[in-house]
Amino acid sequence: MYQILDGKKLRNKIIKEIETSETGKGKTLGVISVGNNKASQTYIKNKERSCEKTSIGFKRFNLLESASKKELLSLISELNNNNQISGFILQLPLPDKLKKFQNEFISAINPKKDADGFHPFNIGSVIASQKLEDVVMVPATSKGIIRLLDEYNVEYVSKRVVVVGRSNIVGKPIAIMMINRGATVTVCNSKTKNLSAITRHADILIVAVGKEKLITADMVKSGVVIVDVGMNRNINGKIVGDVDFDNVKEKASFITPVPGGVGPMTVVSLLENIIKTSNS
Ligand code: NAP
Fold first, then answer.
1. Which of residues 57, 92, 110 is at a domain's end?
2. For each of the chain's 280 residues, which pLDDT tens digit applies?
3. Is residue 261 classed as helix, strand or coil in its secondary structure?
4. Are 56 and 147 in the same domain?
């Protein structure tokens, strides 16, 4: 019998704690968006709603789809120097013509204001440090995953963790955090041969690819813990993950739903990163 790793429930609990402790008072999250990506609008709205439930302020900075590299770099520089903004994120994905500069934009963010925790300094700190408390801004999705697994007392030490996806924003940071916690980690990518032979050995399977039903029931062993990071829209317009949830859940001991699993935890980690900022 599987148990749901309920990110929504945990998010509400953490937001309540932030609200009660008033630790967000005087802090403001900034969000830069470029263009009008429909999914991004929903994710930004979720961040705004979460801020509204706490004392953390929220401010959005929109650039047109046609914005140039120079305009975006200039806005990033402005927010780095704006002491009304505690920390900010650059909402991804960027329009096609700016995508190739993504790493340059992320590197232009002051690491102390990098609420998503994507800056090379923050990723490097995760590699160098065993303790997340020591990291200036922790990569938000990965931090949320760890927080969710901890809540359900999932063990990592000596476990075989398989991460499918090696992006700088999810796959690599979560793999490093699992290594730091004593797991034995395998990371797969689009060139991996015979993926199922690897996923079938996983005690904990973390999937961050962006392909509906990539992971099917025959690709996992009984008792596996499944963390589905993927967010895809299926043909009916419904948000689904990378895992064939209905069939895989019967073999799992724990599984995250999509939506309601990793997504809410990412937002809460962003807020926690903002709370850590000093506003100086
Ligand atoms: P990304 O940058 O596109 O990376 C996708 C990764 O998947 C790449 O490393 C790619 O390998 C790998 N991949 C592609 N096809 C594969 C296959 N058939 N087998 C194994 N690996 C394969 O994506 P991302 O930004 O990490 O995001 C991944 C998913 O997570 C997306 O659906 C995104 O929307 C979602 N997401 C959710 C949250 C949340 O809060 N829930 C946060 C961030 C992202 P190569 O490197 O070889 O190309």
1. 110
2. 999 999 999 999 999 999 999 899 999 999 999 999 988 999 999 999 999 999 999 999 999 999 999 999 999 999 999 999 999 999 999 999 999 999 999 999 999 999 999 999 999 999 998 788 888 899 999 999 999 999 999 999 999 999 999 999 999 999 999 999 999 999 999 999 999 999 999 999 999 999 999 999 999 999 999 999 999 999 999 999 999 999 999 999 999 999 999 999 999 999 999 999 875 5
3. coil
4. no
Q: Classify burial at 133, counting beta carbons within 10 Å of its beta carbon; exposed 0-12, middle 13-18, buried 19 or more.
A: exposed
Residue 180 belongs to some domain of the structure: yes
Mutation test of ligand 1: which of 167, 214, 215, 232 has the most ligand atoms closer than 8 Å to its C-beta?
Answer: 167
User: 82: CA distance to ligand 1 center in Å?
Assistant: 32
What is the CATH number for 256?
Answer: 3.40.50.720
Q: Which domain holds residue 222?
A: 140-262
Q: Residue 203's CB: how many other CB atoms inside 10 A? A: 19
Decide: 82 in ligand 1 pocket, CB within 6 A: no
Does residue 18 lie within any of the structural domains? no
Do both 231 and 147 map to the same domain? yes
CA of 165 to the centre of ligand 1 (A): 5
Q: How many domains does the chain have?
A: 2
Alpha helix positions (H), the chain: 7-21, 38-53, 69-80, 96-99, 102-108, 120-128, 140-151, 171-180, 195-199, 245-248, 262-276
Residue 216 DSSP SS3: coil
Instruction: Ligand 1 pocket test: pick from 118, 166, 209, 270 the residue with the most ligand atoms within 8 Å of its Cβ.
Output: 209
In this prediction the pTM is 0.96
CA 125 to centroid of ligand 1, rounded, Å: 22
For the chain, the residue count is: 280
Same domain, yes or no, for 164 and 244?
A: yes
CA-nearest residue for atom 18, ligand 1, is 190
CATH for 54: 3.40.50.10860
Indicate whether 121 belongs to any domain.
no
Residues 246 and 190 in one domain: yes
